[in-house]
Amino acid sequence: MRLRWLAVVVLLFAAFMDLLDTTIVNVALPAIEQDLNATAAQLEWIVSGYVLSFAVLLITGGRLGDIFGRKRLFLIGVTGFTLASASCAAATSGDMLVVSRLVQGAFGAMMIPQVLSIIQVLFAPKERAGVFGALGAISGLAAVAGPLIGGLLVTQNAFELGWRSVFIINVPVGVLLFIAAAICIPESRTAKRASLDLPGVILISATLFLLVYGLIEGRDLDWPAGIWVMIGASPVLLGVFIWYQSWRDRHSGSALVPTSLFHSRGYSAGVITSFSFSASIGGFFLILVLYLQIGLGFSAIAAALTTLPFSIGALFGSGLAVPLGPRLGKRLILIGAVAQISGYVWIANIIAAEGNALVGPDLIAPMALAGLGLTLLVVPLTDVSLAQTSIANAGAASGVLGTFQQVGSAIGVAVVGVVFFGIVGVDFVPDTLRDAFLGGIWVPITALGLAAIASFLLPNVAQVAAHKADAELAMELEAAALAEDAVPV
Questions:
Q1: Distance CA 53, CA 441 (A)
Q2: Which among 33, 66, 302, 463 would be 20 to 30 A from 230, CA to CA?
Q3: Are 450 and 412 in contact (CB under 8 A)?
Q4: What are the boundaries of each domain within the chain?
């Protein structure tokens, strides 16, 4: 029993390390740009490359754990993530850092799917609520801690490493995680036959790479014909991917993204909502931090403190969303999207009015409102989105939903970068950067507008309640079968 709870602590730390790495790097970007002479495109890749490789391999990472052993894949993921973090810290050029971030994201996708799978193996259905609650709390803590830790490390020049400290911090943590996981976590794998959809992974990877590469690199290359060919080829490959997934779903049921899931209007709306709100987050913080630090001369810790009200608002919103979600359902998601849009518009108006006289406290209220809206939207979203999917497909549907969130984040960063850096050009002065921020912020606002519209098509409260009741009954009836399915080795 004691080892089981120690295993949970190890798994939660791994989830915290991954989530921290998605937020900690933002405040280090200006220091990276200055130290490595990184281009605007490289700064975008440092943010989006991690989430892109993570997104593409997320479902495959879960399948590999089912086949070869979840503990084994978790240890491989931790090892690769730690080594990639060390490579990030040792980067001598922007290109080396970008490649290291891509590798880091890929190994994160091997590590993180095992967290939920191992928890399901270690705990009976009735025991999981507390563990999943702790996982949610860890997510909130990482959102708050990431910018603050990054800001402190960079501003204080910890160990005289500067921005490199935000990556090197993962190394001792990763070593301890590996040792603890090797001791505490039992091995398990599925007894059912599972197969990998490697052609699907290749197709979707190529699709996303062509699109994101074209958007990020196009401006630096002055939009040559080759870039437009790449961007134009992306939807063609996407069509091939959809056809192949439909064929594979019908013939073997092992598609990377089962197209049968999208027969449900409610689930399709949930995917659009997830994609859109995720597209709004990464891009917003990228351009805000660049404006504050490069345009206004904020230190890394000052920029982090400016974003702190967003995280506090998100934590408060999470507490509200838990009791309100079952009562309001998709209406709460709409309220969240509107609140976030209002926060962003408010921020834009303040920045436009204050100009170079802007100080961090000016943004406390709108940042808190935007953070509140984020969790009012996201906390009930998974339950609402899955309300019209069968219990048997819940795992696949949840995995696809998470993948679309990560893809949305990567594409959001790429699109915001096109607008922001297109306005900046080579003129990194306060007025130009302010204009670029005010132009770029309309990308996340538009994405959230799409999420708000899609929320009208989500399942209603009664459908969500019925789906939850069915899921709880199925979990109770199949608890013994699930225990047998996770064959200890």
A1: 25
A2: 33
A3: no
A4: 1-193, 257-489
Q: The tokens 């891009």 sit on which residue?
A: 283
Q: How far apart are CA 322 and CA 31, in angstroms?
A: 39
Nearby residues of 424 by Cβ (< 8 Å), 6 or more positions away: 40, 432, 433, 436
Domains 1-193 and 257-489 share a fold: yes
- Residue 55, pLDDT score: 83
Q: What 3-state DSSP class applies to 188?
A: strand
Sign of the Cα torsion 144, 446, 290, 213 reads: positive
- Which of 75, 109, 112, 95 minimizes the C-alpha distance to 32? 95
| Region 395-400 average pLDDT | 75
Q: When comparing pLDDT for 198 and 476, which is higher?
A: 198
Split at pLDDT 50, 70, 90, the class of 344 is: very high
Report field, pTM of the whole predicted structure over 0.90: no
- The structure tokens 């306060």 sit at 430
Looking at domain 257-489, its CATH architecture is Up-down Bundle (1.20)
State how far the alpha carbon of 342 is from the alpha carbons of 336, 376, 434, 445, in Å.
10, 14, 19, 9
pLDDT in tens, 14-29: 888 887 787 788 888 9
Q: How far is CA 373 from CA 136, 368, 378, 410, 480, in A?
A: 17, 9, 9, 21, 40
Using one digit for the tens of pLDDT, what is the confidence trace for 59-74? 888 888 888 888 999 9
Q: Structure tokens of 70?
A: 């979840």
Strand intervals (E) in 63-126: none
Residues in the chain: 489
Q: Contact 32/155 with Cβ under 8 angstroms? A: no
Spatial distance between the Cα atoms of 386 and 116, rounded to a whole number of angstroms: 17
- Calpha distance 404→272 (Å, rounded): 8
Cα separation of 400 and 245, whole Å? 13
> 318, 334 in Cβ contact below 8 A?
no
pLDDT at 99 over 60: yes
Specify the 3-state DSSP secondary structure of 402: helix
Rounded CA-CA distance 431/398 in Å is 44
pLDDT at 280 over 50: yes
Query: So what's the pLDDT on residue 391?
Result: 63
Query: Average pLDDT, whole number, for the chain?
Result: 85
pLDDT beyond 90 at 152: no
In whole angstroms, give the CA distance from residue 391 to residue 473: 10
Taking the domain 1-193, which CATH number applies?
A: 1.20.1250.20
